[in-house]
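Because discrete structure vocabularies remain unfamiliar, we turn briefly to a single example record, giving the amino acid sequence and backbone structure tokens:
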Amino acid sequence: MDVQEQRVRFVVAASRREKPFTTLCQEFGISRPTGMLWCERYRQAGIAGIAERSRRPQQSPTQTSAELEQRVVEMRQRYPEWGARKLQVLLAREGVELTRGTIHRVLLRRDLVRESERRRQALKRFEREEPNQLWQMDYKSPKGWNAAVGPLSVLDDHSRYLLVLQAVWSNHGAHVREQLEHVFLSCGVPDAMLMDHGVPWWSATAPTGATALTWWLMKQGIELHWSGYRHPQTQGKVERFHGSLERALQARAAPRQHPQAWLDEYRREYNEVRPHEALGMQTPASVWRKSERRYQPQPPPWEYPAGAKVRKLDCQGKLTVKGRNWPVSAALRGEWVQLEQIGERVLVYYCRTVIRELDLGNQRATAVARWFPASDTRAKV
């Protein structure tokens, strides 16, 4: 679970007071002071207030001396294509003993690291416990395909099973929906899906960021998540697959006449033949299984939890709370949403996904994109 999503769920559970606060903290694996801090930050600033913050110290009394930093800079300027590992060896030959991490931080401070070298490693790798708990979806880059967009990929997070590899050559929502309907019918429906902030599953102009495609997915009871803004590592598994696909394309040269036939064969090989290191050298097909959740072309109205506070949006997609009309989404006009009030703030859920946060005190409605940095989440209406 994403850090910010975990904190939202904790704050919601704490506001309900269904369990002792200490017990709730134990279930979330945090201390009581940390739980109180999360609640206080949410009270002050809402969802943006409980986003992960930098742990960088304000002061560094043990920072590398200016003289040693200059030695590192001079060595980098002499060998501009060399990284911290190689520079460490050369500096050691001259009697300067510095760790690789220290050298890299010096290069960062002096702005001597090229953008292509700024590879932020994940602090903790995640993997869902069972197949179909999360699917990752993305487009391959158009490089090498002689098209505006590359193939559409859908990958199971747990098993790495490749459910879709289709040359749709378009990022139109209707074409993506067609592919998803096909895979939903044959493989079932996942619990959640993870995507980036690109067309057609995200709209920068919509108040909620959602599109017709994402509303359709929500109605299937799929909980939607979006990756970090300009942070593709969040979708690491599908990005890693695209790297494998790119290398195969360069080595084998996909035929221009029938690219889909080549993709179909590669998908079969990837799922059923190619051993995967992260799976203990098993194949994705041997680990994956169909979802037990069936696809419903005409899903019934979503049933919110018993006792939940639900309201119906008006013909303009607005919601009346405390005597004021709040814009939620014109695309959801006439739909039912769930309200979860925490102090002076109200979280608005559509099916299983949080779509709006209402600040009753400041009279402001905020779009919710749970993987955005805090500075990018505030979208005033």
Summary: The chain has four domains: 3-50, 66-117, 135-287, 309-377. The chain has a mean pLDDT of 84. The first strand starts at residue 135 and ends at 139. The first helix runs from residue 3 to 16.
